[in-house]
Amino acid sequence: MAPSVRNRRPPGVRREEILRVATEMFGDSGYRGVSLADIAARVGISQPGLIHHFKNKEELLLAALERRDEDSRDHMDAMFQEMSVADALISLCRHNVEDPTAMRLYAVESAESIEPGHPAREFFLRRYARVRERVAERIRRDQELRRLPATLDPVVLAGEMIAVMDGLQIQWLLDPTMDLPGRMAAYLERLIIKEDR
């Protein structure tokens, strides 16, 4: 049934509502476990009404992932201005636990994207390459400042840091009583040159 005039919202507001619901539903059930009709019903609009904003399910998934990635990127860019890589990653952990729905979307869809042909596969390949390089740049700066050992390969270490953080986030999603920022800090503490702390 089409929404009544009273149920209509400005296009930008409706689009945000669709993204919020899609983030939640894709994170709960995965890409294949949710249909556009399911999302439209939860939002309270018709499927054609949803397609007015997002032409298909793939576009909607990628828009939800881009939104989550943009928030994460903005936070990291701000933190990288002043903080060490360790402090910035711990700050990102604190930031992420404030939005478990977005964290769940990322965890579920990154795992699903290993399947060839998954619509988010290229998104995650590009994202991991970009994030590895960004973290590696910050590691190089910390090595120049003697915060991290110069013997460590920045690109390899960046991949390791990202893997540890992703793994800890999955553990936190399973058990939110775990201290995610604390666990990340304990891991990073082992890498830091202690004389400069």
Name the features.
197 residues, mainly alpha, 9 helices, disordered N terminus
Any overview of this molecule?
- The chain is mainly α and 197 residues long.
- The protein has helices at 11-29, 36-43, 47-51, 57-80, 85-97, 100-112, 121-144, 154-174, 180-189.
- The termini are far apart.
- Mean pLDDT is 91; it is low at 1-6.
List the helices and strands and how they pair.
Blueprint: H1 11-29, H2 36-43, H3 47-51, H4 57-80, H5 85-97, H6 100-112, H7 121-144, H8 154-174, H9 180-189
Helix pairs in contact: 1-2, 1-4, 1-6, 4-5, 5-9, 6-8, 7-8, 8-9
Secondary structure category: mainly alpha
Number of helices: 9
Strand content: under 5%
| Extended strand count | 0
Low-confidence runs of at least 5 consecutive residues: 1-6
| Helical residues, percent | 55-70%
Mean pLDDT: 91
The N- and C-terminal alpha carbons lie at a distance of: 63 Å
Rough outline: elongated
Largest sheet: none
Return the string of H and E elements. Answer: HHHHHHHHH
Radius of gyration: 19 Å
Compact description:
The chain is mainly alpha-helical. 70% of the residues lie in helices and 0% in strands.
